[in-house]
Amino acid sequence: MWRSLTSIIRPCVESSAAPEQQRDILKSVSKTFYIETFGCQMNAHDSEKVIGTLEHEGYLRVEDEAEAGLILYNTCSIRDKAEQKVFHRLNEYKRMQGEGKKFAVIGCVAQQEGTRIFDKAPYVSLVSGSASYRNLPQMLARLEAGENRITGLDDRQTDETFETEFVARTNPHRGYITIIEGCDKFCAYCVVPYTRGKERSRAANSVIDEAIRIADQGFTEIQLLGQNVNSYNDPSAKMTFAELLAAVGSVPGIKRVRFTTSHPRDFTKDIVDAIDAVPTLCDHVHLPVQSGSTAVLKAMNREYTRDWYLERISWIKAAKRDISMTSDIIVGFPGETEQDLEDTATLLEEVGYDQVFAFKYSPRPNTPAVTLADSIPDEVKVARLQVILERQRAIQKASYQRHLGEVMEVMVEGHNHQRGQVTGRSSQNKTVNFTVTDPILPATGSYRTVKITQTFPNSLVGEAVRVN
Ligand code: SF4
């Protein structure tokens, strides 16, 4: 929970507390922190756990960096020139170093740059990658003792995961649970195995216990997270990923379970069977293909071919439920030809994705692909990206039309007062904007049955209907 420090101190200090009590109050709230987070959902959820840990250690989160004693920067290395952006931001922190504040850089760029961060930004006291977050309480204690140059960088080969019951959940309706950390896939373009370390799974019982706690707190939707959830390997050897999905989906009070991200190499048919069998599992699979060309997939070290991928898609299409499929695409990977691009475009059409996140390739430090000549000029990459986006838009325009007249359950996420619409999300993760006849708008987090009256390439429009 974010609170302004002044709003907390003032009532305390103005109270009739004795001076020594007032001093204690001020002393305790002097352990304040501000956190800035970049990156993927894994990073955002890591921050929720870091915040929970700090709060458990007696820190108070503030929303203004000027009020913080400790400033944490949770970094992401996926963006182009990520490290330059981090050092630029750290440079902005520099002006605050005379105010007695402490600075911590955590996350993927922290792991990637390591102690170079101390050299370039000597006012930073703590640098930690995500594999060391479980040691955060000890690192904080050393920080409070006045130590500088504290590192958490040597845990990438650990078998342990960052488990904590202290999670400051920022989404009021969707609870995130990490089931697997790290990655062993080593795709040629990706820095994650080097920053987040080797794959390690949480015990199924621990995941289910967290799901029960979340449900008890009133959450109705759970998203299971991991860089590659499909290679989940229960250390207690009790459950496969599909069985874990079904178990989480059976927790009383849970209405929706999502999971991300899947790797085609490890995607098994029993996941589709579980979605068919357990209604609370959302009918949506995000299965990043990256390219439709087997040659490019090989160069990317994705460990599957176009045909292998399409076989998994055929399982999903053969399901009893209409399972929505989405994907990630990289265009302009070194060596990609016009024919490779066409293979990607035809794959989009063959699959019929409901959404695609397409990016231009750019090299990342410390990845195998960085040694390949980045041979495709940027203007060609831009043009290729445009081809993919346009082809995909046409696919979505047609595919969203299948929902016209359909009645579906929508979770309310907000209200668009200007348009007089309620906004929400379907089980397939599609945005649905709808009208209600009730004068009282439905609360966020509640569910409504909606009849679809109009379709667009990226959203659906409808009206709430009563169910008898
Ligand atoms: S599966 Fe590949 S792209 Fe995904 S995190 Fe692992 S190495 Fe990166």
TrEMBL record:
Tell me which residues make up the TRAM domain: 401-466
| Gene Ontology cellular-component terms listed | cytosol
User: How the cofactor binds, per note?
Assistant: Binds 2 [4Fe-4S] clusters. One cluster is coordinated with 3 cysteines and an exchangeable S-adenosyl-L-methionine.
Among InterPro entries, the record links this protein to: Elp3/MiaA/NifB-like_rSAM, Methylthiotransferase, Methylthiotransferase_CS, Methylthiotransferase_N, Methylthiotransferase_N_sf, MiaB_methiolase, rSAM, rSAM_horseshoe
Catalysis performed (reactions): N(6)-dimethylallyladenosine(37) in tRNA + (sulfur carrier)-SH + AH2 + 2 S-adenosyl-L-methionine = 2-methylsulfanyl-N(6)-dimethylallyladenosine(37) in tRNA + (sulfur carrier)-H + 5'-deoxyadenosine + L-methionine + A + S-adenosyl-L-homocysteine + 2 H(+)
Q: What is its main location?
A: cytoplasm
Q: Which residues form the Radical SAM core domain?
A: 169-398
Residues engaged in binding [4Fe-4S] cluster 2: C183, C187, C190
Domain MTTase N-terminal residue range list: 31-145
Write out the annotated subcellular location.
Cytoplasm
> According to the UniProt entry, what is the EC number of this protein?
2.8.4.3
Residues holding [4Fe-4S] cluster 1: C40, C76, C108
Keyword annotations for this protein?
4Fe-4S, Cytoplasm, Iron, Iron-sulfur, Metal-binding, S-adenosyl-L-methionine, Transferase, tRNA processing
**Which metal ions or organic cofactors does this protein require, according to UniProt?**
[4Fe-4S] cluster
Q: Which molecular function term from Gene Ontology is one that the record holds?
A: 4 iron, 4 sulfur cluster binding
Q: What does this protein do?
A: Catalyzes the methylthiolation of N6-(dimethylallyl)adenosine (i(6)A), leading to the formation of 2-methylthio-N6-(dimethylallyl)adenosine (ms(2)i(6)A) at position 37 in tRNAs that read codons beginning with uridine.
Q: Which family does it belong to?
A: Belongs to the methylthiotransferase family. MiaB subfamily.
Question: How is the subunit organization of this protein annotated in UniProt?
Answer: Monomer.
Give the NCBIfam families listed for this entry.
miaB-methiolase, MiaB/RimO family radical SAM methylthiotransferase
Quote the PANTHER family the UniProt record gives: CDK5 REGULATORY SUBUNIT-ASSOCIATED PROTEIN 1 (PTHR43020), MITOCHONDRIAL TRNA METHYLTHIOTRANSFERASE CDK5RAP1 (PTHR43020:SF2)
- What name goes with this protein? tRNA-2-methylthio-N(6)-dimethylallyladenosine synthase
Which species is this record about? Granulicella pectinivorans
What does UniProt list as this organism's lineage? Bacteria, Pseudomonadati, Acidobacteriota, Terriglobia, Terriglobales
